[in-house]
Write a structure and sequence with these properties.
It is built from seven helices and six strands; from the N terminus they run αββββαααααββα. By secondary structure, the protein is an alpha+beta fold. The longest helix has 33 residues, at 86-118. It is elongated, with a radius of gyration of 22 Å.
Length: 223
């Protein structure tokens, strides 16, 4: 494998990271299934930083499905009253914000690598290799921050609940308030593709960064 091929590999890995970040914006990040306390069936709450949805499977035999884009407060279902989701929503927004900035940073890197592969500006003097690696390092940091912030989502759900009950956290128990993934007798908490997309994006950009040190990027006569 020659250096030019390694530049293409760097581009391909980064393109996968870039695409996964787009995927994270287009899908839900979490899913919570709760036994319907008001009748047969299951309530499923889907959530992301920009959209919320509930699917209710009910009917006489729990075999009819209804979808609603209006969020029915899951805190009310689990703890008995609506709760201000201030901390939980701030985590969603912060994590998504860093993912968006990472996506913005990755776009010029793809352009620079593409220009280098095809050596478009043959007469320009520009240290493209150094620039690409610095920007890749920034993209890695932004991806990692996004992943780390959202990993605390359960803690902030618990904080919202405890704040609503004046620090009486007896009602703020169970997997929804304490785990990103978990279940008990009537509640199941899990992930949708959005957050795993950011995790996978982070992995691909890290590998792209490592491969970039073995590749040659050149525009004109300067690497």
């Amino acid at each position: 494998m020659n250096f030019n091929r390694l530049a293409i590999v760097t581009f391909a890995l980064l393109f996968l990271s870039f695409g996964l970040l787009i995927g994270s914006y287009l899908t839900y990040w979490t899913k919570v299934q709760v036994d319907n306390q008001l009748g047969p069936g299951v309530l499923t709450f889907y959530d992301s930083a920009t959209e919320e949805k509930i699917v209710v499977v009910d009917g006489p035999n729990g075999d009819q499905e209804r979808k609603s884009t209006s969020w029915e407060n899951i805190y009310q279902t689990l703890s008995g009253q609506p709760i201000n989701r201030l901390h939980e929503r701030s985590i969603f927004r912060a994590s998504l914000a860093f993912a968006i900035i990472a996506w913005i940073v990755e776009l010029p890197i793809l352009i620079l690598i593409g220009l280098s592969i095809f050596n478009v500006f043959k007469n320009k003097k520009f240290r493209v290799g150094l620039c690409i690696r610095l920007l890749l390092g920034a993209a890695i940091a932004l991806n990692i921050i996004s992943v780390a912030i959202f990993s605390k989502i359960a803690d902030y759900r618990n904080k919202d609940c405890v704040d609503a009950y004046d620090a009486d956290n007896v009602r703020c128990t169970g997997p929804f308030y304490n785990h990103m993934i978990g279940s008990d007798d009537n509640t199941k908490v899990g992930l949708m593709p959005g957050y795993p997309c950011v995790i996978s994006s982070t992995a691909f950009v890290i590998v792209s960064f490592i491969v970039s040190f073995f590749a040659t990027f050149q525009i004109g006569n300067v690497q």
